[in-house]
Amino acid sequence: MKKNTIHIVNRTLRNKHLWFFVGFLFFLLILLVIFPKFLSSSISYKKDDLEIEDKKLIVLPIPPLDTLAYDKKLDEIANNPPPKEPTVKITKDPKTGVETTVVVPPKPTPPNLWPVKTVYPNDGAILPFKRIIAYYGNLYSTKMGVLGQYPEAEMLAKLDVEVKKWEAADPSTPVVPALHYIAVVAQAGPGADRKYRARMPGTEIEKVLAIAAKINAIVFLDIQVGFSNLQTEVPLLEKYLKLPNVHLGVDAEFSMKNGIRPGKVVGTLDAVDLNFTADYMAKIVRENNLTPKILIVHRYTRKMITNYKMIKILPEVQVVMHMDGWGGAAKKLGTYREFIHKEPVQFTGFKLFYKNDILTKGTVLMTPNDVLKLSPKPVYIQYQ
Q1: Do the Cβ atoms of 86 and 105 come closer than 8 Å?
Q2: Which candidate among 12, 22, 256, 335 keeps its CA 20 to 30 Å from the CA of 6?
Q3: Nearest CA-CA partner of 293 in 302, 305, 284
Q4: How many angstroms separate the CA atoms of 51 and 108, rounded?
């Protein structure tokens, strides 16, 4: 009796499931007949969503370099003094008293050193169309620059203030924010391999990359080689240089080729060192289909960079000779005039020290308008 009851219950459940399935199909049929627009609009909406997602993945092509605009901008940042006008001189004949007006042409002046005529960069070059405003330092130290001196949010807020100042001072040149991180730091002690430099771990570099991403900034990785050399240190940063927003800085001050430890004397780099670096960067650009990289070269004495005329300029790499000296405005302007203006390479940079530039009583930090009076106008500004 119990077994028959179970069979009847199972048969009843199967019949109920069948009728439910038939009812569901009938309901769908009614929807198709009565509400075709609703279904079609729903399908269309989903299709539109897919199209929007597809559009998000589209990478716009880089416009080709406008060489006329490039040359015009170079002339603008050269900031050469206007040509001297002829003078008018009136002479009087002592016998007749007749006055004669004579036009005296200006004395010939030497040709302008700027702009430097080099190869055109590849498409997508940042310089000279934009100006880079960078904060410099190391996350491990509060004394090496503002990048490590303040908590992240405060540091980024301060950088934004400087960016806005430069946008206001030169509205014709868009500003790109940057973080300039010392990835290889010169040391007073020899270290395990006696090279007097410390390489920062990848975790620290990645922290800087993450911070930069929050404000759409570019990143410079800076190298102070100590007793090592660029030929050894640059390749170790290759995986970061393959990123489109990562560029490079090299600091001649701490390139110790004389056997004296960093900090005791000012170091030096030669064109051979810089050409190796530029060639290496250019290779990365070509192999990874990147827009031009920027190479910042720190300098504030003549001997810091030797054989500057031999420095190669490549379409893949834009070279900035960066005035890295500190002190009052007069001293900084003199350094820029002697070692940056008089020995042209391609582009120029200028460093502003929040503390060291105002150590002398009565001195104040140079403003963007002060710096823009320089010839040439720097396209890279670094704050420490």
Answers
A1: yes
A2: 22
A3: 284
A4: 65
- Helices 36-56, 2-34: axis angle to 10 degrees equals 80
Q: Which two tokens stand for residue 269?
A: 């780099």
Contact between 312 and 272 under an 8 Å Cβ cutoff? The reply is: no
Closest C-alpha to 351, from 249, 257, 274? 249
Q: Which residue ranges in the chain fall short of pLDDT 50?
A: 1-18, 21-22, 30-57
Instruction: Give the percent of the chain with pLDDT over 70.
Output: 85
Partners of 250 in the beta sheet? 223, 297
CA distances from 328 to 145, 250, 348, 363, 367 (A): 18, 24, 19, 6, 12
For 219-244, b/e burial (b = at least 16 CB within 10 A) is bbbbbbbbbbbbeebbeebeebbeee
Q: Find out whether 145 and 384 touch, Cβ atoms under 8 Å.
A: yes
Residues belonging to the chain = 384
Q: Which two tokens stand for residue 134?
A: 């960078």
The residues near 384 (Cβ < 8 Å, ≥ 6 apart) are 136, 137, 144, 145, 146, 351, 352, 353, 354, 356
Residue type, 158: K
Cα 60-65-70 angle, rounded to 5 deg: 135
Query: What local confidence, expressed as pLDDT, does residue 26 receive?
Result: 54
The span from the CA of 255 to the CA of 130, in Å, is 30
Average pLDDT, the chain: 87
Which is nearest to 250 in space by CA: 207, 292, 209, 294?
Answer: 294
